[in-house]
Amino acid sequence: MSEPVPTTDTQDWPGHHKDLNPQPDLLTYRDGREHVGTGKLKNKRSLITGGDSGIGKAAALMFAREGSDIVITCLPEERHDAEHTKQMIEKEGRKCFYLATDLSSAENCRKLVHFTVEKLGGIDVLVNNAGFQKIANTIEDISDEQWDFTFKTNIYSFFWITKAALKHMKPGSSIVNAASINAYVGRPDLSDYTSTKGAIVSFTRAVSNQYASRGIRVNAVAPGPIYTPLVQSTFPSEMIEISNQVPMGRMGQPSEVASCYLFLACSEAGYITGQTIHVNGGTVVNG
């Protein structure tokens, strides 16, 4: 189990799981227990974007331990981390495939869904997890190109992938979207990222209402500061230290968010749709 306040060492974007020191908790909880699978997702087929590292990696491993076969995505420069995730999933006795691709492209998103159906035969769980963020103190510091890329990666991809995946999802399927505490607190130095996360919350609510009658649930998780390569490659060390200043006094671990992804994905959450779970160390937000 990692230290309560992880290292403030930074990385170059997009960051790599293998370079985090100490390594984050992926399958271990704060009391030292390791996640034990009980068949919650037995023989399910899951697509998890950004499953090479961070929260997505932890979710992929938990899902596999619960009996699911997995497709994950990564950026081309993150193949090493994706291969590591694949190997860990295969040790759990489940299938894993990964696609290195840029999800800011509609065509790539549709190819991803086709790839998943081709490899797994269908989709029972979709986790829209991949995202991009870059610090800019004011909106005057954000170029049109950055604004466009952030929206295409963080919310357009959710639309493109969800739209394509729904054609292959049956009653009992589940969609989990990665939102953020920033959608609720309005973080000023991530205004483009924050805007996309607000859109994700609304997108989740709208699609949940559209598909509730068809037996497909759609929910979101809004993490606070979590010890991932994305955070370590986005913020300078002094800002990482500040991010630990939540009521619980530490960053969260990927395992602590992935367990919420798992809950929403499985039948235990069968009466929950259109909701957002806040995993943020005790910061109280509205919504």
UniProtKB/TrEMBL annotation:
Listed PROSITE patterns: ADH_SHORT (PS00061)
Q: Which UniProt keywords apply?
A: NADP, Oxidoreductase
Q: Where is the composition biased (Polar residues)?
A: 1-11
> What Gene Ontology terms describe what this protein does at the molecular function level?
oxidoreductase activity, acting on CH-OH group of donors
Q: Which InterPro entries match?
A: NAD(P)-bd_dom_sf, Sc_DH/Rdtase_CS, SDR_fam
| Pfam families reported for this sequence | adh_short_C2
Q: Which family does it belong to?
A: Belongs to the short-chain dehydrogenases/reductases (SDR) family.
Name of the molecule in the record: 3-hydroxyacyl-CoA dehydrogenase
